[in-house]
Amino acid sequence: MSAAMDTESTYSGYSHYSGHSKKAHRQGRDRHKSPRSKDGSRSEKSVTIQTPPAEPLLGNDASRAEEGQDDNWGETTTAITGTSEHSISQEDIARISKDLEDSVGLDCKRYLGLTVAAVLGLLVFLTPIAFILLPQILWRDDLEPCGTVCEGLFISVAFKLLILLIGTWALFFRQPKADLPRVFVFRALLLVLIFLFVFSYWLFYGVRILDSKDTNYQGIVQYAVSLVDALLFIHYLAIVLLELRQLQPMFTLKVVRSTDGESRYYSLGHLSIQRAALVVLENYYRDFTVYNPALLTASKSRAAKHMAGLKVYNVDGNNASGQSRAMIAAAARRRDSSHNELYYEEADHERRVKKRRARLVVAVEEAFTHIKRLQAEEQQKAPGEMMDPREAAQAIFPSMARALQKYLRTTRQQQYHSMESILQHLSFCITNNMTPKAFLERYLNPGPTLQYDRDRWFSKQWTLVSEEAVTSGLQDGVVFVLKCLDFSLVVNVKKIPFIKLSEEFIDPKSHKFVLRLQSETSV
Fold first, then answer.
1. Do 242 and 264 have their domain in common?
2. What ranges does the record list as Basic residues composition bias (predicted)?
3. In which domain, by residue range, is 394 found?
4. What is the pTM for the complete model shown?
5. What is the pLDDT confidence band of residue 174, given thresholds at 50, 70 and 90?
């Protein structure tokens, strides 16, 4: 009894439904006893850290409450709120401090790049205007009259600058999706090109116009117009390098998750390794099913059970290598019978899943039938007495809670669905008049990571491991790894082969034939 109490978590703030008060109070007493026995079993190297609410290290308060969600919510039907404690070792503290230092460095690098780009962009837009205004300010009386030609050039410069401003906003002023480990080579080259281009224009302007105080104002305005035209061509070059170059698929990437072997294929164009890794991660959260470590514990426990049944006796005083060889030989002899055990375990698991799935489907259909009956009754009442979708969800949830909890436990999905998230999904389905099948779709089939709570299952830190430089382009045979805390994604790059397509001409006359019928027929 004490061992079972040690595995439970600490909770506070219970709100009970009717009919379950005694059982919930008994479980509440068991939960309040657990921290003392849990603290007594902690090692000397562990320390309890309560993260501040401003910068949570392990998620927000809602995610911590969901991590402490009681597995018996289907039996007690209680709404649980509160916080839980997380114990981490000194090595974890050092790792967290290192991650904080790295994040500070990445933020400084990102803001420095944005500042340089903003200053350079401001200089680009002010330069043509300065070219036109400086002669008017410094030697206005000595300028030759320009007349209608200059006014037309002014309108041309204004509209070209407006077009350039809109195009720059659409191409560069975007919210960054990720912090890459290295700079974007093409963007850096464009910034350098623009800086050299504007600097050369200013140098020529200072030597040939400012020093000599050129009186040909029309030539000065045309000089500013030529600068704006060149900037428009540089913007076109930026579109080609940053957007159009990568559209044509050139490589096929096979992405394999290291824990369960789930894989997907993606086609990409000419991208650097770091930008290809970013595309892989964006598609991973959409295409891959959510990572469930509970599904991997069955095979590990089975292997541990087999190894635990082996006993090795050191009679002659042999070393540890001899013992390991003896255990491997014994495990090989027992391998012939292990596949039968695996077969019957999987068959029994499938039978239990189908059985509890059928019970869940029936319970949900009955609950939704009850909802329709309540809606029909509410339509006959006054408008002020209509039931809220949240209240309707709370009213029918106890009838399906036990069947849903058992199904989620059997399929090992209980850690992904808290009672609060289920109630929100149920109220959403009731609001939008969805069917029971639409409600069960989230629980019968594991969905992608984006379907679940972002703060709990979204990995904020990824590490890119590559033998090649991350700024180099994709090549045939390149392999890189994306690592997070629990698993890694292994990416293998293959070049799309060159396809030679030939044409074969078929003479249309070769398909013609003559059908001859005999004149005499049997009647």
1. no
2. 19-35
3. 333-445
4. 0.67
5. confident
